[in-house]
Amino acid sequence: MQIGLQIPDFTWPGGPGLLGRDLATVGRIADEAGFDFIAVMDHFFQIGSVGPADHEMLEAYTTLGYLAGCTSRARLLTLVTGVVYRHPGILAKIVTTLDVLSGGRAWLGIGAAWNEEESRGLGIPFPPVAERFEQLEETLQICLQMWRGDETPYTGQHYQLERPLNSPQALSQPHPPIMIGGGGERKTLRFVARYAQACNLFPGPELAHKLDVLREHCDREQRVYDEIYKTCYFVFDVGERGEKAGEMVDRLGTLAEMGFQAAIGQVAGVHTLTPLEIIGAEVIPAVADL
Questions:
Q1: What is the C-alpha separation between 138 and 150, in angstroms, rounded?
Q2: Which residues make Cβ contacts (< 8 Å) with residue 129, sequence separation at least 6?
Q3: How many CB atoms lie within 10 A of CB 218?
Q4: Which one of 78, 85, 141, 235 has the lowest number of neighbouring Cβ atoms within 10 Å?
């Protein structure tokens, strides 16, 4: 079982003036502690489950590029890129750039987007959900084509690219892994089976059922189910002195028994650094062989 840090909140005690320094320290400590992933949300406004909309929120790929320079081993990604926020040809270039500058550590986490408030607030077109899924499928096709080095024109319903040139190419081979976030049974998990190397699901009583649905889609797509890297969102709260670490290891063990290979999520009190160090010392080694 691998462990990943997601940073969803940038409203830290030092304020914006110290945020660059503090974020660099969090990234470095997480990297050295053995976290396999460092992720951020792809939002422009803070989301309601974390805090008020006007709390500090950093643009995702600028932040990941900064973290690439502060770390050396953790893989870098969003949970998850909103498909409506960037033209797919530009998104392929962005992830490729992150991959090249990080030494091959970029993943593309992506989904159909949901936050209409920030889209409307910033003037980003936000079509109905069915159209967003059409855009998601075309975006996946375009990214894969560009990472293959195929410069032939792409003509889709929503996007037309005359010459999808991608130079330099990504260092990751055959391309940066694609992780599709969400548990939609008709489209999202079908896209995982058809296009992705990984999925990200949210915890809940239907987790086992979602994996069964994914397996069914893999069978229909003639995809080997075990090829899909399965991750689950997880809230890491080890307590002030690490008193909850054992309980966390047990919960991660349950996920591993279900077939999940990684847990990625926020760490309570991350800006204090102590929880990262506790997880690195007590949790990551305990779940490494699960």
A1: 15
A2: 112
A3: 20
A4: 235
Share of the chain residues as helix, strand and coil, in percent rounded to the nearest 5: 45, 15, 40
DSSP single-letter state for residue 185: T
- pLDDT tens figures, 118-133: 999 999 999 999 999 9
Query: Residue 246 and residue 173: Cα distance in Å, rounded?
Result: 37
Per DSSP (E only), the strands in the chain are: 2-7, 37-40, 75-78, 81-82, 108-111, 154-155, 160-161, 178-181, 198-201, 229-233, 262-265
Structure tokens at 153: 């024109």
Q: Six-digit token pair at 49?
A: 């489950």
Which of 290, 191, 283 lies closest to 5 in space, CA to CA? 283
Task: Report pLDDT digits (tens) over 197-209.
Answer: 999 999 999 999 9
Q: For residue 91, which phi and psi values (nearest 5 degrees)?
A: -60, -40
**C-alpha–C-alpha distance, residues 110 and 127, integer Å:** 17
Question: pTM of the entire structure?
Answer: 0.95
Q: Do 84 and 116 contact (CB within 8 A), yes or no?
A: no
Measured distance CA(202)–CA(184) in Å, rounded: 11
Sign of the alpha-carbon torsion through 12, 14, 15, 16 = negative
Pairing of the two strands 108-111 and 229-233: unpaired
